[in-house]
Sequence to fold (572 residues):
Amino acid sequence: MKPWIAFWNILVKDMRTYYLKPPNISWGLIFPLAWTGMFFIKSGSGLESIMALLPGVVAVSILFGTTSMLAVTVTFEKKNRSFERLLLAPIPFELLMLAKTSGAILFGVANAFVPVVMAAFLADLSLIAWSVFVPAVFMIAVASTFLGLFIAVAVSEVFEAQTFSNFFRFPMIFLCGLFFPIEKLPVFLKPLSYALPLTYGADVLHGAVHGGHAMPFILDLSLLGAFCVGLFAVSLWNIKRKWIL
Amino acid sequence: MTKDTHTIEASNLAKRFGDVVAVDSVTFDVRPGELFGFLGPNGAGKTTTINMLTGLARADTGSIRIGGIDCTDRPRAAQHLIGVVPDESNLYPELTGFENLCFCAALYGLGKADRQGRAKELLEGFGLTNAAGRKFSGYSRGMKRKLTIAAGIIHKPEILFLDEPTTGIDVASARQLRQLIADLHRAGTTIFLTTHYIEEAERLCGRIAFIVSGRIVRIDTVEHLIQPVQEKHVVQIACANMPDDIRDKLCGSFPGLEFTTQGQGLIRVESGEPVRVGPLVRFLEEQGGEVAEARRMRPSLEDIFVQITGIEADAMRKEKEKAGGGQ
Ligand SMILES: Nc1ncnc2c1ncn2[C@@H]1O[C@H](COP(=O)(O)OP(=O)(O)OP(=O)(O)O)[C@@H](O)[C@H]1O
Ligand SMILES: [Mg+2]
Fold:
């Protein structure tokens, strides 16, 4: 019971001080809008392409929404030393880090539905397989958050976290099959695609939205889950090794 | 709750950062309900020791038990027993004073009513009620320090670590804070306090460890530490226009006394017997000096500290004040 009081209050505090701040809320709206607009203009196609673009826009929104937050909630708090308060709290370390990341996960899920709501005005979404779409959104949010955590823990300055995460994020837009099928990538880049978690998440989203996917959902989601566990474990290990000197 | 849940035992703790040996084979234990002082100059290893004891740093060697729990391999095992006031004020800048305290209480599992009650009580106690609704980032340094201390005791810990609590706050607040520390001690809290204020250590602590360059050079009760100087008689004379070789001349003329010159125009006279000031003053004036004042000094822990560590207490204090505590 007691550790959950801590868990809940960490989550609520992060929500109030970081996620629900007007700049973040507006970023959460502007990013998906910008992505959607950009790809419509680029593809020069009409409304029928919305369903083809939606999975990619959803995935990008989650990726950018979650990873940019961890630089603040973790790297910044480490820098101003308030993170030490959390390390001193009598709660299991894993629970503490889950509390620290669950805000970003929720933020990522909320970000994902911004383009969905926009698309609802322009296209018929009744054919989307929501029972697959929603778990996929959640898993992508968890994996991206833990990727952000991994990055946030690896650096010591907020700007480094931002730079370092772009190093991952931008290539992922092109390598993970969000907008361009992986089959069309040069052969030497394909192994890289399969080493990135978002590839599996995007595959499920494509399948859920318009039926075209490369791998079974269960395999996609299992691999995504494995990435989550792996990234979380490595991040925790890194914190123990690097921050508890 | 058995009494031995209130203890700190450290044995052979060592910690280095690259080539720097921060703490070198430190052994001590703090008994239940004791107020234990850790006194040493900048960079002596006080904060590093606290970090190892509280689980914020890993010891290279040695073992730690807090409240009877072995924390050597599991540094977080005893965190429910302890409260920590760090050397820097590290609360959340974007939360108000009240929110900060409530949040810290929640980290220790206090329910909502308890959190708010404790927070109000402490804000009141620290004279921060009027600032309760203001953001921490807008607090002055002393206010930050006070709120940080309040946050460290909000869950009424059995064992409290205080890293230079009074650095950076005004005299009246420091006095108030010492009173608070004494009250906590009286109520049974075991307290580990680091400080560079020798008088503070002397006034508050039962036992004191002197730490220099990562090593404990002496641990004892304040009475035992002071005893050798208490049997000593000390007089300080302020005198202008002294000849350069005055010390030698004095030593030659007053063989039973010990003389040290201290800075500009100050002579310190020590003896096992009561010092007769009259002949000294006359002698100095014969030598062309102008004596402004001669004072009997109460022997203090400061003398012992200087004697044992070879560090001038004044120098230590000034350096600290320049660096300033807190944020
Ligand atoms: N993270 C670190 N990396 C490298 N060296 C460190 C680190 N922390 C402490 N040190 C070194 O260890 C030594 C002891 O530092 P520590 O902070 O424990 O001293 P202190 O007694 O608390 O000093 P102060 O009175 O200034 O607070 C110093 O030489 C310091 O430079
Ligand atoms: Mg220190």
In short: The first helix of chain A runs from residue 2 to 19.
